Amino acid sequence: MGNLSKRVAIVGAGMSQFGRLYPLKRNPDLWVDAWVDAVKSVDNGIEPKDVDACYVGNYSSDLFNHQGHLGPQMANLVGLTPKPASRFEGACASSGIALRQAVIAVASGIHDVIAVAGVECMNELPTSLVTDALATASDTLFEYPAGATFPGLYATVATAHFHKYGTTSEDLMRIGIKNHENGVENPFAQMQRSITQLMQSKLKKLEQQGKERPDWKDEFDYLKSASNPMIAYPLRLFDCSLVTDGAACVFVAAEEVAKKYTDTPIWIAGTGQGSAALSIHDRDDLTGFIATREAARQAYEMSGYGPKDIQIAELHDCFTIAELVALEDLGFYEKGKAAQAVKEGETKRDGARPINTSGGLKSKGHPVGATGAAQAVEIFKQMRGRAERNRQVKFDVERALTHNLGGSGATCVVTIYEK
Questions:
Q1: Predicted confidence band of residue 2 (pLDDT cuts 50, 70, 90)
Q2: Spatial distance between the Cα atoms of 275 and 9, rounded to a whole number of angstroms
Q3: Are strands 235-236 and 8-15 parallel, antiparallel or unpaired?
Q4: Model confidence pTM above 0.70
Q5: What per-residue confidence (pLDDT) applies to 1?
Q6: Which domains does the chain have, with CATH numbers?
């Protein structure tokens, strides 16, 4: 695996509000919001004339919005035409791939500055059709016709992990509880309510309706109740990420121009991408993802860092089990040991290695094509000490990582950042 021929930095990053925003916001509106937020984050300012190309990560505007060819559409909205504009697709890893390709292009010397866009407006369709559209990122010859949607596929990963390592539903619940607590502190998040707040709201509603009050002693009782229905055993509703509209923007710049825009760039230390069989029945191991392990190997090798060097990370928690197995696949914990670390609070915002301070896909939201870029936005804020509300970690972050999965783990991009 080769190295980048020159250093590449992120000099600005921003995002739109995440949420159920359609019809008030569509892809063009979301992207412009993200662009404006990213421009504001550039210390010395940036203008369209400074940007050489636009790389757009988007999974399926064709299905969600009946609109393809997003590259020039997004570029034109912010004054980037007639410069190069391309769309990248890799399911939920689309903008992670766009970011990686932008880094490679800038390192090659072809471009000095690239605007990376991640955008997805999912709520134009009802949830049933969103599920149908997402399922086309699985194997449509075998899995899709059998009704194996992504909740079912990740449930298969969960049951395999349960069987081999003794993992429990409570272990997954702790991940969801943590990420909801982080989401409360993120003003851009779709779900800015903790599990405790949701439980209390449900109790109040039942009381107002004159119904019997459940004997819920804590969040775990609530999450085991009918208020958190089973989706695909063992995954319940609150184990699943949200259907989200949103966009993110990241400005990637070459070393020789980065200091023009900021005195505190965030450098790309390493990047890697892996793949796996599309169908999970073609994989040797269901307790983790080989694509993650390969992408991580490449990123660690390029950066010269290892798992112990990473201080914070944004992981792809499309389902709670995905965060758990990522903790192990990335080498943060040995196989079967991550659940105990989560239980001991190591991944909380005040823990030894905070994970998903943004709230993750679980609470921040998961506009699939925008997720990878949005992860980079959170890392950019944390490393510069600019995370909103009480979300900023209490130590100086020198090294961080993002992990962006596509489909049922068939694609993965891992990026490592340093000051």
A1: confident
A2: 26
A3: unpaired
A4: yes
A5: 67
A6: 8-126+242-418 (3.40.47.10)
Burial of 109 (0-12, 13-18, 19+ CB in 10 A): exposed
Rounded distance, CA 361 to CA 255, Å?
Answer: 31
The C-alpha atoms of residue 218 and residue 199 are separated, in whole angstroms, by 9
Residues with a catalytic annotation lie at 92, 366
Report the alpha-carbon distance of residue 257 to residue 247 in Å, rounded. Answer: 26
Q: What are the tens digits of pLDDT across the range 230-247?
A: 999 999 999 999 999 999
H or E stretch covering 342: helix 338-343
Distances (CA, A) of 5 to 70, 261, 310: 30, 21, 23
Structure tokens of 275? 């793949």
SS3 content of the chain, % helix, strand, coil (to 5): 40, 20, 40
Q: Are 248 and 95 in contact (CB under 8 A)?
A: yes
> What value does the CA radius of gyration of the chain take, rounded to a whole number of Å?
20
- What torsion, rounded to 10 degrees, do the Cα atoms 149, 151, 157, 158 define? -160
Distance between CA atoms of residues 343 and 121, nearest Å = 35
- Within 10 angstroms of residue 66's Cβ, the number of other Cβ atoms is 8
For the ranges 148-152, 301-305, 321-325, 348-352, which has the lowest average pLDDT?
148-152
Sequence-separated (6 or more) residues with CB below 8 Å from residue 278:
138, 139, 407, 408, 410
Q: How far apart are CA 332 and CA 285, in angstroms?
A: 19
Residues found in the chain: 419
Nearest 5°: phi and psi at 405?
A: -95, 155
What phi and psi values does residue 231 have, to the nearest 5 degrees?
A: -100, -50
CA distance 84 to 252: 15
According to the model, what pLDDT value does residue 173 have? 99
Lookup: tokens for 152: 């079912």
Say which residues have a Cβ less than 8 Å from residue 299's Cβ, sequence separation at least 6: 270, 271, 272, 401, 414, 415, 416
Across the strands, what pairs with 160? none
Q: What counts of helices (H) and strands (E) characterise the chain?
A: 15, 11
CA distance 51 to 36: 14
